[in-house]
Structure formats: C-alpha cells, structure tokens
Amino acid sequence: IQLILSSFKIYPFELRLILYQTSLYVIAMAIGVMQISDILTKGMKSKWVIWITAIFPLILCIDLCLHYPLKSEELKPSLRYITDHLEPDQTIYVYYGAIPSYTYYTQTAYVNFKNKIVFGNCFRGQDQNYLTEIQKKSGKTWMLFSHIYNDENKTITHTLDSLYKRQLSFKTFGSEAYLYDLGTPTQIEAHFNLK
After folding, report:
1. How many Å apart are CA 82 and CA 177, to the nearest integer?
2. What is the per-residue pLDDT across 161-184, written as a single tens digit (0 to 9) for each?
3. CB-based contacts of 94: which residues, under 8 Å, 6+ apart?
4. What would you measure as the largest C-alpha separation in the chain, in angstroms?
C-alpha cells in the first residue's frame, strides 16, 4: 500500500524506509540477545544473567515512554504560522536544512505558496556567505529555519536584527520563522559591506 501511495507521490516511501526495516532489526536483536543469554547461562544454575541482559532494553523502553511522543524539527507549525501571516508581495527564504521537509510538504499539498520561494545554499562554516546570499533579496522576506547546523540561524538573525526591525517571529521545537523588511539590495550591501 505504501509503495502505491509513494508512486502517486502521496507518501514518501524512500524517506520512511527505516520504519519498514525496524521490525527486521528488532527480530534480529531479539534472536541475538537470546543466543547470548543461552551461551552465558549454560552450566549455571541461576538465571540471573537473563535479568542482566534484559536491563538494557528495559531502560530504553522506559526512556522512550518518558519522552513520548518524540519531537524533532517540527516544521509544520512554522509553515502554518507563515501561511496565516503571509502577504502576496512577500518572499520566503528557506534555509538549506529545511529544504527536504519543505519539499515534502509542498509535494503532499500541505502548503501551496504562490509567493516567490528562494532556497538557500549550504555554506557550513562560512556564515558570511549566508549574508551575501540574503543581501540579494529585497522587500519583506520570511526566513524559514529547520535542521539547523551549528547555530547558523542565530548568526543570520543576529545580523539582521542589528540592521532591521524584526516584524514577526515564531519559534517551535526545531524550526523558526521570521519576517524582515530587507529594504533595497543597495541598502543591504551598504550595511553588510558586501560587494
């Protein structure tokens, strides 16, 4: 069923392949644990070794239950926020780490922005290049961040905050959205001293 849904681009099978492989891994690990406990308990009268081998999976289960549901990089709330506040003349800058999630939500029709979308490039360790890329934009621009590497979002927003008033902002678990009025490209170039 999932392969059929994937062929119609409704559900991404290749991005969720690990979910389908999980049962195979669990079965293989269970057989391995049983084999190890059988080897260790041979010749022993007590079965205390079985209890010791069961402690690790028990700890993992407890940790999973305490932190359920798992949340990481929830882009949907940020997209919802942008959708609620988006105006026709605004541009959306998608940070490179958020591109896969953003692409998925556009393919599944969760979002369908008619505005100009700019996909950011990866400049790990070269924060000035992000600012060079952003300085090419003008007017009101949304900054959409997710899957952030090494606090690059803070560098970008800190610089923009020092130059412009942040008009709107939204933060959720693992994603952020900010609206700035970047002015004209020449103003930005003068501020950043970029050529």
Report:
1. 7
2. 888 888 999 998 889 999 998 875
3. 102, 117, 118, 119, 120, 144
4. 82
Instruction: Tell me the pTM.
Output: 0.64
**In the predicted structure, residue 186 carries a pLDDT above the cut 50:** no
Q: Which two tokens stand for residue 85?
A: 């506040």
- Which residue stretches of the chain are H helix? 2-7, 17-41, 48-66, 76-85, 99-107, 127-134, 152-163, 185-192
Q: What token pair was written down for 83? A: 């959708």
Paired residues of 153 in beta bridges? none
Q: What tens digit of pLDDT does each residue of 66-105 get?
A: 766 656 778 899 999 999 999 999 999 999 999 999 998 9
Which DSSP letter does residue 126 get? Answer: -
The contacts of residue 117 (CB under 8 Å, 6+ apart) are: 91, 92, 94
Instruction: Give which of 144, 126, 135 is closest to 164, Cα–Cα.
Output: 135
Please report, as a single letter, which amino acid is at residue 135: Q
Dist CA 161 CA 169 (whole Å): 11
DSSP 145-172: EES-STTHHHHHHHHHHHHS-EEEEEEE
